Amino acid sequence: MKSNISNLKDTLAGIIDSCFIILVFVLPFVSYPFILNSNKTGKELFFVTVVFAWLFFKALKGFKNKTLNIHTADLMMLLFFSYVIIHFFIFSYYDFLYNQFWVFTGYIALFYLFRLSLDNKNKPGASFDFIIKLIWFSCFAESIIALLQKTDYLNAGNEYFQVVGTFINPNFLGVYMVTGLIITLYQFLFLGLKNSIAKLLLLLSALLMLYILYLTDSRASWISLVVGVLFLLCTSSKSFTFLKANKKKAIMLISALFFVGVSGSYFLYQLNKDSVDGRTLIRKITISEIKEKPVFGNGIFNFPGIYNNSKAEYFNKQQRSWAEIKVANYVSTAFNDYLQILFEIGFFGFVLLGLLLFVIIRKTELNPKTRLGLTFVVIFAFLGLFTSVLYNPTAIVLLVLGLSLLVVYGGNKKEMLTITNPFYIKSINISFIIVSFLITALFYVKTQTLIDFKIVSDSGNQKFYYKISDNKMRLIEDDPFIEFKFGFEKFHEGESIKGIFMMENSVKKSPIPDANVVLSNLYLQQKKILNAEKLLLLNVGIEPFRFEPRESLLKFYIENKKFGKSFKTANEIINLPIKIESKKAHLYKENARKIISRYDLD
After folding, report:
1. pTM greater than the 0.85 cutoff
2. Domain coordinates in residue numbering, the chain
3. Which intervals hold domain O-antigen ligase-related (predicted)?
């Protein structure tokens, strides 16, 4: 009887795990149309809620555990996470209610949830097989959605791109297609498929994913696919044997691959020079900021605010070449995760993260499962050189899965401590139960508050404070856009000091040009001329190729009788090349010429 009850509990726990695994891997398809920024913010809210709800159930199940093994990787994870938390509260512009903070925490929780699910002694390999098929199915479904967008049967809902799948941009879609292709290849190589229909379906899905990858125009994704396929194939025992026995052929093969890689990279660069040049500029300015604070960095999640201010200073300080000006778009990431990590948490945090990964990867036994895990790690480590994996939650979930595979199946776990005291084990589980329940409840309330925020925003005539209390406002005001909206309302409802403070804090986190213009106008109402000028100059430097910021600055100088600066700004407008032809650009130039003529007449 006890055995039957135990089996029933294990079966129920397995079903719960499977349900949460499904919820985690359907993340790409999640969107919350009932809130603003439905795709990005919706995915964040969903991810945190699912992960901590899963942690709640896992902690409940953990009460019956008699031992708790602590490994070297766990101690390194604790050290790294402690550093990040302390660093966050000291240096970050945000507080602990910020979504991205809990998304990051969710990644660490997910690492352990994957480990516990994969390391199932009763049904070894069951969760792994289920996850492989689930990822393949999700990637295949995503490719079908993208195909429907390409053929205009489905609207992407994106004003800039026709084909994005359910992602916010084609690059994220490209990364997902790479994952699908690697998983498809893995099934062909290791699952021993005998069903002809299954093989045909896999082949057709691979062809469709390749086509969608082609449509994304994602250079980094193509290169990462080649790297991933080569790594998966070359880590077999046969490959090692061949390389050892045929050193000359191996050298020739590696040389040929290197030549093809360099040639391919040059060809891909020619396809979109401005994109590559733009990222070169980002790296240049980012590195200069890293040099200013190399040890501890500039603060987690502070990149958009600090980088765009630094870029504005770079362009406003002296005349720069048109080659740099034309690619200086507003950006919120470094498009290089290694630089972004150094920028935000410094060399000390970077070393801790490196040591954590080293402990997880070192002495890993190569087998089909760990080869797949290492392939994921290599792919995303490579992509991190050219794009932002850190802010692609779907990619990080797959990276976390890869690291979990290495820990569970790598045979390199080194136990540092074993806890057998029932009181300590139960205390740890109670702590996780309480924390996970509170976070799940918190994000449920946050979601409801964001729904109310959208309702008020869409109405156009309601006031936020009628619908949302100050306590609920605090749950969501860490979002720069929301904080600015709240501050703007408070300013016009008589709380000008509080309102200005909130808007200033918002543009410090994310100096979006439109927000800067609004705040500069409010400064003018308060006769804070220098503050207004500073923001208008910031806009010029943030997007130096645009005419509108210079036109706004020119009007400001004329209205405030700063004739010398008016003359200088008008000349800049006349001499600024046109990046994208438009009637407005020529009107701005004509207006500047009239102003110059007026000064000449005077």
Report:
1. yes
2. 461-601
3. 205-353
